[in-house]
Each structure stands twice: as C-alpha cells, then as structure tokens.
Amino acid sequence: VSAVRVVVTGVGLVTSLGDGAASTLARLFDGDRGFADVSLFSTDGYVSHVAAEATWLDARGGSRSDALAVRAAAEALAQAGIDPRRERVDLVLAASVAGMFETEEPLTRVHLGQSSDVDLDLLRAHPTSAPADAIVARLGPFASARTVCSACSSGAMALGIAMDRLRRGDADVVLAGGVDALARLTFAGFSALASLDPSPCRPFDRDRLGLTLGEGAAMLVLERADRARDRGASALAEALGFSAACEAHHVTQPEGGGATAERVMRAALAGGGLEIDELGHVGAHGTGTPRNDAMEAEALARLLGGRPVPVSSVKAQIGHTLAAAGAVAAAVAVGAIKLGKVPPAAGISHPDETLAITLAAPRARSAPVRAVLVDAFGFGGNDASLVFGAAGMGDPADVVDVGPIAITGVTTLGPLGRDADPLRYVDDGAIADVSRGGDDPSGWLPPELARRADRTGRDAIALALALGDGDVEGLGVVVGSAFPASDASAAFWARVLAKGPRLAPPALFPALVPSSAASLTSIALGARGPSLAVCELGATPVAAVATAIDLLRGGHARSMLAIAVEPASPLVERVLAPACSRVLAGPRGAGGAAIRLEPASRGRRAMALVEVAAVCPEPPLVRGPRGRAAAFVVDDPDAPLVAALGWAGVPRRSVRPRAGWHEAAGGFALAAAATAIDRGDLDEALVAVAAPGRFSVCLLVRQ
Amino acid sequence: VAVDRGDDELRRVLEAQEGLVGVQAEVVLEGRIDLAEHPDVGARAEELLAVARDDDRLHVVVEPRLEDRLVELAHHLVRVRVHRRIRESQRRDAATRLVGDQVVHLGDLPPPFDRATTSRPMSAPFVREIKQLLVDELDLRGVLADAIDEDAALFGEGLGLDSLDALQIAVAVEERFAVRLPEGDAARPVFRSVATIAAYVAEKAKPAE
Predict the structure, then answer these.
(1) ipTM rounded to 2 decimals
(2) Residue B164: which of A251, A418, A446 has the nearest Cβ?
(3) Which of A61, A586, A603, B20 has its CA 20 to 30 A from that of A397?
C-alpha cells in the first residue's frame, strides 16, 4: 500500500505578536519579540514579571483558551476553504491550561470550603476538553472531536495523530493543533520550579535562565493531498513525518544526552522519507531553560552531524505556549516553507558556544526552505517530533496495516476492590456504598512509584501494574480523566494564596499537568512508547481506547494501555461534575479500569477484537448486532444512544448500580464487555456512553 | 499521660488499611508512657505479642485481626504509628507503610526497635527537624525520619533525591524556619546532606542576643 500524502491547506495562528497567521508571521520573521509585563494578574512576589500575553484578545463571554482556540480554528478553516458544516472534518486539539485562568479562584474557594456558590456556566470552561467544545459549538459539528495532552509536546502529538489518521485513509480532513492561555497557576508553578527567566527568555543563549510563558493557539487544516488537488485547494506544505515516545526518566528533568529526543527526531525524518541534508531549518523546542536547551542541542548535534542546518526556537519571540507550543512551531514551519524564509533566532546576545548547533540569524533570511524538523518536549519526558516539507519533498513511508486490534487484558479498581471480576460490575443488585470507590493504592504501591502522584496518578499506576506488560520498551500509555488534577490545582493555588508566591510548593506543580498521571505511569513501568492524557467527560474511557488504537495503527507502540480513572473528590462532586457532566444526583463512585490493546497479529491471546471505537458529537453509524449480543452502558440515560445505534433489541447491562456514576464508569463497562466475550458468554458487545456534547461507542467482537 | 490522638482518628487510620486483610502486619506503637503508672498497657502489649519495650517505647507485632485491640490501647499513647508490611509489590519484596504520622518506611530497614538506633546520642540542633521535614515535604514514602543518615549525600547515590526535591526543601525550610537557603553555586555545600542543612539553619536561625 503506498502512503497517502498529507498536505496543509490552512493555518491559524494567534499569539502575543498578532491576531492571525499573517500578522504573527510578519512580525516573527522581522525578529520582533512579543513580551511585556503581565497585565492579566499581579506578579508581585515572583522573580519574573513578563509574559507573552495576547493583549489584543477580547475573551468576553468565555475563557481566553476558548477564544484563542476558536480564532485560530476559524482562520485555518477559512484559509483552507473548508466548512465542517458542509463536509466531514475531524478535530484533534491539544490543551492543558484550558479555562484555568477563569476558574482557578472560584475552584479554590470551593476547595477551601469558603463557598459553594459558583457560576456553573463559568465552570464549563474549566475542563481540558472545553476549548475543543468551544470550537465544535462555534464552527462545528465535526465528524469527531478529541482533546489530547502530553504536557508541552501536546501540540505536536495532536498534529501527529491527525496526520496518521489521514495517511491511513481514516479521515479526509482534520483540523488539528493546540491552545493554551496564561494562568496564575502556571505562572506560580513554573516560578516555583525556578524555571522562569526574569528577562524575556533567551533560548540557546549562554546566559539563559529559563522560560517565559506565552499564550496562543495554532491550528492546521490537514488534508489528503489528492482531495486537496481535486478541489483546487493550494497546498501550503506537506506534513511528512511524526514520531512520539516517552523518556520514562523523570517528571521534570529531561534525559541527559537526549537519546530519546534524538530517536524521535530520526524516526520522524525516516517516516517522512527525508534525508537530513534536505532540512532547511529546525524549529527547536528551545524553552530557554539551561537543561532543555543543552539536552536538545546534544541530540541535534548528533542528528545533524556537523551540517550547518539553522536552528531556532519561536519561544524567544512568543514565549512558551505549553500545549500549543508544538503546533505553534508547526505553523511557523509551514509559514517558512510557504514564504521561503528561514525563521530567526531572536533574543540572543551571547550564543552558548558549548552547544554544537548552528543558530539561525536574528532576522529571517530569504531562502527556499525545503523541509523543517519541529521538536516538542514535555514534562514527564514526552518527546514528539514532526517533519514538514515543500510540496513533493520526501517520500512518506508506506502505511503498514497492523490488522485488527485486540484487547488482551483488562483490570478494574473500584467499589469491588482491586482486579475484581469485571462481570461482577454488571451483576444484579446495587452496592450500598459505591462512593467509597476503592482503596487508595498508596496502601500497596511501592512507595517510590507513588511519590509525587495525586490520587489520579496512583490509581493509574496501580491499574497499569495490575495489567503489566513485559515489553515495556514498546508500551504506550493513555490515561483518560475528565478533570485531571483539578483538585490538586485548587490545593496548590490555595497554598500559594495562603503563603505567598515565594512559598509555592515546587514539588506539587508537575502533578497539575493533565498528562501527569500518564507520565508517572510510564515512568513507573519504564514504558517508552507515547504517553498522554485524553479528556472527554463521560466519553473519556472510549476516547482512551480510540487514541490508543490510533497510536498502535500509526506504528508508535507495540502495545498500549488505555486507562480511565476518575477519583472521588468534593470539588468534582459538588461543582465540576454537576456543571460539566450535568449529573446532579446519586452516589458518584470512583476508580477506573485499564485495558491492554495490541494488534491481534502479535499473537497474545485476545479477549475480544475492537471493531469500532469512536467519540463523536453525533451518534456514529454502527452495524446492527449479530449472534449473541448485549449492550453495556453506564446508566439508563445511555439507552437512547443504544437505540439510535440500532441495538435496542439486545439485553442492556448497566454498571451504575455497582460501579457508581462518574466519568470513568464507562471503563467498567468496557472491561465487563471484553470479559463477557472472552468467557464465551457473548459474540458481540456494544459499549455506549453518552456525555454532554459527545457520544462514545465501542463495538467489541469475538476473535 | 497526654493523649493527642482520639479513638476516632486512630480507628480511621486503621480502617484505611482494611483492604489489605491477610497480609502480615507490623504495628509499632511509640510514645512516652510511664509504664509504672500504666502497667495495663504493658500487659496488653505483651498479650499482643510484644516484641520489645524500653522506657519510652513499645514495639508490638500483631496479626491484622488483633488490630481493634490497638484502639483501646491508643488511649494511653501520645503517638501511634501503624506500619503494615506488604508483600505484593512488584519492585520490592517487602515494603512497610506507616500511616499514623504520614511517615513510611521500607521493610528492609533495620527494625525500629533496634537499641542501637533508639539510644543514639543527641544530634546537633535541627538535624531531627530537617529529617522529618524531608520525609513530610518530599513525599518520601518508604523512609523513616530516624533512619535517614544525616551525613549521607542528599542527591545521587546517597538518599537519591533530585533537583525538584532541592527546590521543595528550600521552600519548606524557608516556611518552617524563616531561613532562606542559598541558591546557585553557594547552594552546593549547604545541600550536601541533612547535617549541612541543619548546620546552616542553626547558624541563620540563631536568635539575636
């Protein structure tokens, strides 16, 4: 099978330098730097007072993240001439901060028990999935929508997943990218980590002292090349390669020497069929922290082998936009290729002579740029690289069809304890106290693995250890959670409020990234495949399975753990779930499930095969049941979805009476469905869970 | 005898362990108890397979089914620590978790009732406090404050801490003792060990005379 070529037909880019790709790129290539004293909030008591703030942004009526995401998405679609209302477009968005700026104070008041009087509408902007919801509401419907987070490599992860899907022929057009806004919480957190440079950041400079936060969004319209050609759309650049892996090394420190970073860069280039000599620029991650830049330069020096490929980091001009960063760098790469400009390395007074790389000029140089390597690295050692090229460059690798994906293991952690028989969650009779959820794994986890994990992380690690996998080198981890770290964030901010910015607890901050549970799980297992979070309210468990399958089919892992966890917490129970998941009554429950997925061709005994795993704003098309079949749901409100899918005639089993209702409860349904097929009780099982704004469906069949 | 832990709190601590029925448990009760005044405590402890006792400590190993007896016993204790030995972890054969004080230590440490440990001579000022601060602030499940070697290197081969821990230590010391630890190159000699941090704190925290 020859590979489908993927082109970029639209770019949206909003940063502190401008409201739109044209204005941002013009100023970027001029060497402008978009830093100023923060106006959004007080920076008293911090070492740094600067950020790259989008001062032009009018976010009235929503969160800054939502506004940035919608503007970038609208710009990209307009340039591409694509309207999701008239054609099939999928959405993959990277986010980590989401509505934190708008919700950090009210949530902290609730956390401290000072108030439970919170505007629920406002809280709908809080979840990591909110910016994608805002794009869907304003510009959709989309054929499917997904939010991913792998800390500061998220934007590259989202684009890579989109690129893979097009290359396999699973999509026609995908709008993908990333967004993050400024927030007090991230400012305090990076300050506590001593990661903020008091001056605007100076990546690759001898005197660099850290990063400077920025905010923005970048969205690309990615499209099959033949389709773009047929409709007469012009290709701005080709999306050629993507690779992602986890260093499984440390929550904040990059792996010394950059071996994993180098491996990922090489894999992205190989995937695009590109020679290193064809690279015209490297859009480095280049945060400006001493360690990241040293590690990245070391990896690049080995990769480039002395070739004078100009390297620069856009963060020197628009700051570190966190989950958006990889997508922002990708948008700049597309601009460089299209406009024939080598992006500048701004803000450098004294190049760090110890780094064996060639820095770009202080202003953009006009020259054909045939191909660009984009790096994005994040907390937890999440490394991702993308390769873009001019039309016709490279020779993307053939798509290797890994064949059907099998579930080869399931485990649960819930009211019935650790690793209970999953079918007991669909037995008759309610459990008196589901809200107990399950025991805190800190009671049995090896202490050094549980360190620095919040309850979400501990549950995820415990589930992963229960399933295990000998082949950790090729093992990837997806941890789904609707409100990852919301509690820990409120606790962190409460401590900053009480004790002042100087005493913000640095060790607690890394756990506030939505992907921290996934990172800690990868580190605990030594798993070096991609590691990321997905956040889709009650559709999260199926979203985790679908994302794991994407990464398996993209060849980025040999096996994947799809984990869904939702710990019980007063903050989630009292305000976030009622606001976002619209569930007001009844015991919530807690815990979750882990599901191991791998190509059936790998030979491990399959419990069931996954025929469909989809999260869509509208119920997807699914064939009717065959043989002995049943539908597994969380609760009665999922029944209309089952009926809409044409499965009303089969027995329906709910997990709510025994697992409780929470956003990860669908994980219990998935585990029970796979187990029922494995035991020979069923030939097919449909898992269907509806959540506000999305429907999740998984069809499991006997091998 | 001052009692600062009521029945309810201890019961809660013990109940938190409920899911682990059947594993071998080691419970250490530690407190300042005048045994002459409360002979019944000693007697009950003996009944619960007392292992050792000295002037101010009782160390008892019990089966999990006997744990409820400890609730009664708690009335007589200033401080209660509950350890539980776990034999199911993947990376270690045995780990012991201490719940009562949110302090935890691993099973392969020397028994806490080792007389050599308990009769250690008085440490320099702040050493004991810094040890406890490390355990509390760095989420060091698996380490008993008393078992930390005050002269061991904090980073690398010694205690195995990292730069994130160093940042947290600096914040915690500033919060607890109102002493700002040095940064950059000046931090190196101070962050060498518990003893060097304690010495620095002792010097800077000296009350003005």
Answers:
(1) 0.87
(2) A251
(3) A603
